[in-house]
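Long-time lurker, first post. I've been practising inverse folding by hand and with some scripts of my own, and I keep getting stuck on stretches where the structure tokens seem ambiguous. Below is the full token string for one chain I'm working on. Before anyone asks, I'm not after the true native sequence, just a reasonable design that respects the backbone. If someone could post their per-position residues I'd love to compare against what I wrote down in my notebook.
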């Protein structure tokens, strides 16, 4: 006992002896189609599509297809280990629930359900600045689980200081700073509907629960949600950010800092030279620059350049256990999940997220084992060929 892969046997036993089958598909690549059956068109149109015509999102998936696993035989994988530690945070597997905003679009429990599922599975949850529940509420929901906070660095420094102070006070230890969304990308599916949840007071709970933000409003957000949305739209864009502002952030955050959205090897080197602890190689799931390079295609060169000095994490396009294996083999210490867990949330709240995570970890465990790896730390690019 003790392997995540045992989940497979329990599903078969439930089917053959108990007569029950999983209520959500175990084929994680088809979660999107299942979620599309339960979500209303506007939230679905916000969550699933990417920037422009979607070419970056397609490239993310195609990049995973090009790398193929080359299984090794007779290497004893009876005892296996998925558990790991990333920047001092212990986790049951090298998988993190990435920062995803406005989670009540998927389910009324939103981030609370995802944070609880993460803690139940022993994985970290990254609380987005763009959330529907406050920093403090999600900290509480995380219980004794890891607390990582994702910052959208607002153009108002006093507001930024307030977010950081609140996150520290609520027990968050790691700061993920998202750099690729200083301005929202061009998203035709939302534009065609004229749909932006923030202007309806959704996804801005971090702001409307903040004393600095509220002091700037004429009326409380509950009384005038439109004005709150407009005030958010005034402080969110921050296109003037530069590398020289990182020391300012460092002074206000004592723990590890991870820069999310790195795609160029020179930016990875700049991150290292500016003394942060980690990066997320990510193109935001293709939601920002349409036509951008697939995130997986830049991972090997970045890992090669800075992997010895920095913690290199990865996201964008991870849909299955084999995808996790491929990203780890190409140099990531762990991956972040985006849409897949949100689809689980849409399909079943907290248990739906747990289902997705359990299936992903089981598939990862079995794929590693059948490919001849008892420990994911033994993976290297040699585990793969590029076709
Ligand atoms: C609906 C949605 C909302 C997101 N919100 C945020 C956010 O608030 N902060 C952030 O850093 N990234 C956000 N992301 C990007 C994810 O953290 C992650 O980079 C991306 O989803 C990974 O790609 P994948 O969905 O293909 O796995 C969001 C993604 C989606 C799909
Ligand atoms: O939807 C997103 O991907 C996202 O991260 C975001 C964040 C703030 C405003 C708009 C979108």
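-- Answer (accepted) --
I ran through it position by position. Result:
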């Amino acid at each position: 006992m003790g392997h995540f892969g045992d989940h497979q046997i329990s599903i078969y036993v439930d089917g053959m002896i108990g007569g029950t089958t999983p209520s959500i598909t175990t084929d994680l690549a088809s979660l999107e189609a299942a979620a599309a059956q339960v979500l209303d068109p506007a939230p679905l149109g916000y969550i699933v599509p990417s920037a422009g015509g979607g070419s970056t999102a397609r490239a993310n998936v195609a990049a995973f297809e090009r790398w193929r696993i080359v299984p090794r035989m007779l290497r004893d994988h009876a005892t296996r280990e998925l558990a790991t530690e990333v920047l001092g945070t212990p986790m049951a597997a090298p998988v993190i629930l990435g920062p995803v905003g406005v989670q009540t679009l998927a389910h009324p429990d939103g981030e609370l359900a995802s944070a609880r599922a993460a803690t139940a599975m022993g994985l970290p949850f990254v609380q987005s600045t763009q959330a529907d529940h406050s920093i403090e509420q999600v900290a509480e929901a995380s219980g004794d689980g890891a607390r990582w906070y994702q910052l959208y660095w607002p153009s108002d420094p006093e507001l930024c200081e307030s977010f950081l102070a609140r996150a520290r006070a609520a027990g968050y230890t790691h700061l993920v700073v998202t750099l690729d969304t200083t301005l929202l990308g061009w998203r035709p599916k939302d534009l065609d509907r004229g749909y932006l949840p923030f202007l309806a007071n959704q996804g801005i709970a971090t702001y409307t629960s903040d004393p600095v933000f509220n002091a700037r409003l004429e009326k409380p957000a509950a009384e005038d949600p439109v004005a709150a949305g407009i005030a958010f739209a005034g402080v969110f864009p921050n296109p003037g950010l530069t590398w020289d502002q990182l020391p300012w952030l460092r002074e206000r955050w004592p723990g590890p800092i991870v820069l999310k959205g790195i795609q160029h090897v020179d930016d990875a080197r700049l991150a290292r030279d500016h003394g942060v602890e980690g990066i997320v190689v990510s193109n935001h799931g293709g939601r920002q620059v349409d036509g951008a390079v697939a995130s997986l295609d830049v991972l090997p060169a970045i890992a090669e350049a800075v992997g010895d000095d920095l913690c290199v994490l990865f996201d964008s396009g991870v849909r299955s256990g084999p995808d996790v294996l491929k990203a780890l083999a190409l140099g990531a210490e762990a991956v972040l999940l985006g849409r897949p867990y949100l689809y689980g949330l849409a399909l079943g709240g907290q248990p739906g997220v747990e289902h997705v995570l359990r299936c992903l970890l089981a598939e990862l465990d079995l794929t590693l084992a059948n490919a001849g790896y008892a420990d994911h730390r033994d993976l290297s690019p040699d585990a793969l060929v590029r076709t």
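A couple of notes from the structure itself: The mean pLDDT is 98. The CA atoms of residues 138 and 380 lie 36 Å apart. Happy to go over any region you disagree with.
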